[in-house]
Design brief:
The chain is α/β, with parallel strands linked by helices and about 325 residues long. It has helices at about 45-50, 115-120, 120-135, 155-160, 175, 195-200, 220-225, 245-250, 270-285, 300-310, and strands at about 5, 20, 30-40, 65-70, 85, 95-100, 105, 140-145, 165-170, 185-190, 205-210, 225-235, 255-260, 290-295, 315-320. Helices cover about 25% and strands about 25% of the residues. The protein is globular, with a radius of gyration of 20 Å.
Length: about 325
């Protein structure tokens, strides 16, 4: 049986993403063949499609997806045909079937819908390592999360569940208003970030800043920290931070900066299972809400890329099969 997949023959705009038939997939040792349910759409795939990040063409995007196991490769234990799984470590998931190393997939509890499971891994796992491992905000501490009411809402929710006060940046007064399900997250305007952070902490500054924006917010993020505060720089949506004088950390109050990435926080099967387990527990307990902001059929992957790149959505964008 052939596979229907999104293929780009060359780098370019969203229009290069075309649905076509490709050869059937053969499951190899240690792998799972999965029938796709939902695919998470992420900015990295836009960068790959457009040629910003080099990939080999023809190219089928995608690493994040959920689905049902159709075949199990030699040497795989603990997974059966018919199991529901999710992953952020697959390849070519913009398709109605995909392959993934069994060690990179986890079983989805019955209480979690497959569309939610497909929207969860990349942002959920990132939020989990940020909240638990990249810095160590304690109950009663104050953290600032850039875009923490939108793209990084998972991080805000996990921090709040741990007793941390959360401030999050917003571009407009409307975005800064509390949302019904997130009233413990306070929005502050980006253009008055340092002042708002000081006002919210009796002049001291915040304990931790989680910054996935990069170049445009880095300086203000440093200024928002209190003495011995930590800046967790985990992305560069606005561009990479240029080299800077480390003496600024001393002058700012013995500050710390760390630059983590997700792969280094999935070092062992046990660590992966722990992170997913806590995310699934939070979903079923109602302390974590994964918002799906837009759904597109697989064939409309180009429209999904255009919507994500144009910031026309709030919440996760997914493709459904």
């Amino acid at each position: 049986m052939s596979v229907h997949a999104i293929v780009a023959d060359r780098p370019g705009g969203p229009e290069v993403l075309q649905l076509r038939e490709v050869p059937d997939l053969t499951v190899g040792p240690g792998e799972l063949l999965v029938g796709t349910a939902a695919v998470g759409v992420n900015f990295i795939e836009i960068y790959q499609r457009s040629g910003v990040y080099p990939v080999a063409f023809p190219f089928t995007p995608g690493s994040e997806a959920s689905g049902i196991v159709r075949a199990v490769g030699e040497g795989v234990a603990g997974v059966r045909v018919g199991d529901r799984i999710t992953t952020s470590e697959a390849r070519a998931t913009y398709a109605d079937s995909f392959l993934v190393a069994a060690e990179g997939a986890v079983r989805v509890p019955d209480a979690v819908a497959l569309d939610v499971a497909g929207a969860l891994p990349l942002q959920g796992l990132t939020a989990h390592y940020l909240a638990t491992s990249a810095a160590h905000a304690q109950p009663g501490d104050t953290a600032l999360v850039h875009a923490g009411a939108g793209e990084w809402g998972c991080c805000s929710q996990l921090l709040v569940a741990r007793g941390v006060r959360v401030l999050t940046t917003a571009s407009t007064p409307r975005q800064a208003r509390p949302q019904p399900r997130r009233r413990r997250v306070r929005g502050v305007r980006l253009r008055r970030l340092r002042r708002s952070a000081r006002e919210a902490t009796d002049g001291a500054g915040v304990h931790v800043v989680y910054d996935g924006v990069g170049k445009d917010t880095f300086d203000e993020s440093l200024r928002a920290l209190r003495v011995r505060g930590t800046l967790v720089l985990f992305g560069g949506a606005s561009g990479q931070v240029p080299p800077f004088d480390l003496q600024r950390l001393n002058a700012g109050g013995s500050l710390s900066v760390t630059r983590p990435s997700l792969g280094h926080f999935l070092n062992t099967p046990e660590e992966r299972a722990w992170r997913y387990g806590e995310l699934f527990d939070a979903l079923t307990a109602g302390t974590l809400d994964v918002r799906i902001g837009a759904r597109f059929p697989l064939a409309d992957a180009a429209a999904a890329h255009a919507a994500l790149a144009g910031r026309a959505t709030t919440g996760k964008v997914i493709l459904e099969v």
